[in-house]
């Protein structure tokens, strides 16, 4: 009799364990491989701590386009980072935030973030997962508190379910929100411009593009280094401080006067789409940027040594360089249906090749 | 058969964690001089300034016990956020060091690695408002309030002390000797805000009401508050 009872207890225990495995722990989100374009270095993002999964990317995409991450519901990440502008604020020197405010810097395009160690024009943010916290809580951007965002998401059954599919249970916390956002923005890889096709031997430059590339390699690559078209360093390129924005750049982070007015070298991928240019969007065209380099720049004590005599460029060179820079437009990326607001992938129009 | 069944039960029990017998309970008591600090109340500091603190929070980590003959054992790998407004945060249950304790040591602040590893959870979740979003890094300790001595809007003072990089690293190690013969399992650590102003560096609210970034002032405040702790005598 005693024996039977023991056996029954054991069977029940085994069943309970099996049930536990089945209900909660059997489930695994679908892993997604991160493809490194041929010839590119290893990414710096630590994918081991936040492995890409189909469910995680889908959740991040939904969050990226959800206005509820802002105080009044109007400002999603996607409202300032627009796909047709390679995820910059298209045609805006500064972006619009909560309560008719403006950001103090130009929103850069978002792509190839897995290879970037520091974020923002001054490099103040040291991890991609931390980046969303800045716009979410800034009074002139999304103006919301993290607690409120978590509260809103927890109240939504759809999100509870999606956090569960992405991370195994319904817990919604700061870490999971930011990791999901990272997963989505990490998939924004831009590596299919005409330049890339030429490098892979699948296409050829026309003459002005070819000449432009030669000039570029002589005058620009020490800062705008291939394949990212930036070496991720901070440099003073002789842009005087805007009297209203009073932006000291890198110095704000390091506290060192040698870093005054240094800003990160921006990537030039998709530069045909990411106007206006410069950290405060003061240049409305490439031509204005070239005029700055060759004429209007103010050489300061800590202006980059490569620019001590400004950067002489002839009109001819400017024409060729412009032709080359337009080959960096990645029309596949700009139209990739996986990157638009959720639901937009049902649009069955294939991406159209776009050469301005 | 019985044996197997009892082993099952043991396994189940092992999954439960009960407070360890012989463990140490460390209690933080925040004060302004001899008075217990309650956010919103007004106190007179040793330097003569009158203050009404609103917020007083700091991170404690790397808690260790050291024996009379110099053996040292880590009591926890966690970070704790002590908040003057939340009494539950002020009590930390730790494991049994296994020897009579002569000294307790801990770090006030957050390990540098946690400042560069993305978004953390628990006490280190950025939603506690102890994280700089525009210049990544933890605020190691924070003291905010108002004072008639302040000449800025709202007569406020706000000291957010942080910085994890080399020369601006604001973590500080604190070592506190236990008086002889005191209860080893219930240790009360007093934190007196006077030290923020009247430590090695003299900080006056009238001239320096704000610290919001890593740098020299943050380092001076950290040096000061590293001396704010003492062990309460029974």
Question: Would you spell out the secondary-structure blueprint of this structure?
Answer:
The complex is a heterodimer of chains A (356) and B (234).
Chain A: H1 2-25, H2 54-64, H3 77-80, E1 96-97, E2 101-102, H4 133-137, H5 146-154, H6 157-167, H7 174-186, H8 194-199, H9 207-219, E3 234-235, H10 251-254, E4 263-264, H11 286-296, H12 315-326, H13 331-335
Antiparallel strand pairs in A: 1-2, 3-4
Helix pairs in contact in A: 2-6, 2-7, 9-12
Chain B: H1 2-15, E1 25-32, E2 35-36, E3 43-44, E4 50-67, E5 72-74, E6 80-83, E7 91-93, E8 101-108, E9 131-132, E10 137-146, E11 156-162, E12 172-177, E13 186-192, H2 194-198, E14 210-211, H3 216-225, E15 229-231
Parallel strand pairs in B: 1-13, 11-14
Antiparallel strand pairs in B: 1-2, 1-7, 3-4, 4-5, 4-6, 4-8, 4-10, 8-12, 9-10, 10-11, 13-15
Total number of domains of chain A = 2
Q: How much beta of chain A, percentage-wise?
A: under 5%
Compressed to H and E, one letter per element, the order of chain B equals HEEEEEEEEEEEEEHEHE
What structural class is derived from the secondary structure elements of chain B? mainly beta
Mean pLDDT of chain B: 92
Pattern of helices and strands of chain A: HHHEEHHHHHHEHEHHH
Helix segment tally of chain B? 3
Unreliable sequence segments of chain A = 350-356
Q: Characterize the overall form of chain B.
A: globular
